[in-house]
Amino acid sequence: MPYNVSKQIQEAMERGDFKDLPGKGKPQQRHDNPYIPPAVRTVNQMLKENGFAPRWIEVDKEIRAETENAEKLIENLKGRRSRLEAQFRGQPLKRDAIRSVFELERTQALEAYTDQLQQLNKKIQQWNLMMPLRDKQHPLHNLDAATADFHKECPSL
């Protein structure tokens, strides 16, 4: 006699055996990816239990933090520019000194910004080699466009 699981499940449902099961109406808690091989799953679990993460997760965190730092550099320079602009209007005799100080700071900030983006692009290339899924890869920063945006965001006094 063949064993018909579907029929047994249907009969159990009709009897009400599946009513009021624990977790009813809540999503199932799955902590492991069934598509990851068991050896990789074990290594990832050991890393997690000891406060570490796989290298690709660490690199992604670094990319996000360094991108934020580069954006903060521009925001800080914009704030500095607005403060100096107020001094510029309030102290007309010191305009040349204020302008030259800001231009020096602006040049140094642009150099630091492009250096950060170049280092960030290297890290992004490293990440993209680790992450074969195209939709998970980070785009590289276009240095020419970033420089143009920098000049637009932080113009001279």
- Uncertain ranges: none
Instruction: Please count the beta strands (DSSP E, at least 2 residues each).
Output: 0
Please estimate the helix content.
55-70%
Question: Which overall shape is indicated by the principal axes computed on the Cα atoms?
Answer: elongated
The chain-level structural class is mainly alpha
Strand fraction: under 5%
Biggest sheet details: none
Distance between the termini: 90 Å
The rounded Rg comes to: 29 Å
| Number of helical regions | 5
Order of helices and strands: HHHHH
> Would you tell me the overall average pLDDT?
86
Q: Which terms summarize this structure?
A:
single chain, 157 residues, mainly alpha, 5 helices, 68% helix
SSE inventory with pairings:
Layout: H1 5-15, H2 38-49, H3 55-90, H4 95-130, H5 143-153
Helix pairs in contact: 3-4, 4-5
Describe the structure concisely.
This protein is an all-alpha fold. The chain is built from five helices and no strands.
Provide an overview of this structure.
The structure is a single chain. With about 160 residues, the protein is an all-alpha fold. The protein has a domain at about 55-155. Helices cover about 70% and strands about 0% of the residues. It contains 5 helices and no strands. Helix 3 (about 55-90) runs antiparallel to helix 4 and helix 4 runs antiparallel to helix 5 (about 145-155). It starts with a helix and ends with a helix. The mean pLDDT is about 85.
